[in-house]
Known about the structure:
The chain has eight helices and eleven strands. Helix 2 (19-32) packs antiparallel against helix 3. The protein starts with a helix and ends in a 5-residue tail after the last strand. The strands form two sheets. The protein has a seven-stranded mixed sheet, sandwiched between helices. The chain has a four-stranded mixed sheet with strand order 6-9-8-7. A hairpin with a 5-residue loop joins strand 7 and strand 8. It is globular. By secondary structure, the chain is of the alpha/beta class. Residues 46-47, 77-80, 83-84, 103-105, 108, 130, 132, 135, 143, 161-163, 166 line the site of S-adenosylmethionine.
Amino acid sequence: MSEIALRQESVPATVLPASEDRVQWLLSSVLRNRFLPQPAPDSVFVGDGDFKAVGAEFLGHFIRMGGLQHESRVLDIGCGIGRMAVPLTQYLDFEKGRYSGIDPVEGGIAWCRRFITPAYPNFAFQRVDIAHDLYNPQGKISGKALKLPYADRHFDFVIMTSIVTHLPPDEVLVYLSEIGRLLRPGGRLFMTAFVVDPVAAANETGRRDPRLAFERDGDGPCWFVPDLPRLAAVGFDDGFLDGALGRAGLTAVVKSLGSWRGQAADHYQDVFVAEHRGSGA
Ligand SMILES: C[S@@+](CC[C@H](N)C(=O)[O-])C[C@H]1O[C@@H](n2cnc3c(N)ncnc32)[C@H](O)[C@@H]1O
């Protein structure tokens, strides 16, 4: 364990700053911590941006927008190469907090198992061979018939960052239904997406990210970027994800539109936080 982390552990709880100060202190300590594992830049296949800075940013969103707790049992769907997991090691309780990450890409899972689990045994990673045109074209499991290998009501918090931005709508529906099964009542999903609202569709502000020149795909809810492979960036009609969450037994408690459409926001993709409203029966 790093010297920095040991110093943090030794600070008595009574002198720790409260709430927002505490979050800021945590995020800056993640950013300063030279001992946190970090993959080689050329093996990071999960998107551009600084690996550590993006992870720290999302840890802040999970806590502030999602209400993530130290003792949460977390499922990270499409965990990639641990960009969300690495900062979570500094937040989830070592004894009671639990993290499970799944992804179809073997290299990312192997890196996480090698560099995260030995120091944090409450962090588990599993490869699931789900087919995906770009990430896992030879995959044996269809995303349209997916059953995740976990018991009903097992999780408090599910993460899907930059996942539905790469999935066709029928697979999004299967995932949301699975999340409805896996979350305990009151448990939460934190999901990012591209919601193609009128502002984004018309590039009303003229400031939309130029890489995301979405065009509607026929009569369906999907928007694709004509110059890119279809699943490189997927947007959805405004309302599609809200309706799908509702059908899965989840109620959106946060819907925060992101800066990709050209409007001010402290996050790039759109963010949904949705709560499981079931009785647990
Ligand atoms: C843009 S990356 C985001 C990774 C990670 N969530 C993050 O934010 O760092 C998309 C991830 O989705 C994974 N993926 C692709 N198809 C998937 C599927 N059907 N189910 C779960 N994950 C999938 C890819 O392997 C990749 O790791």
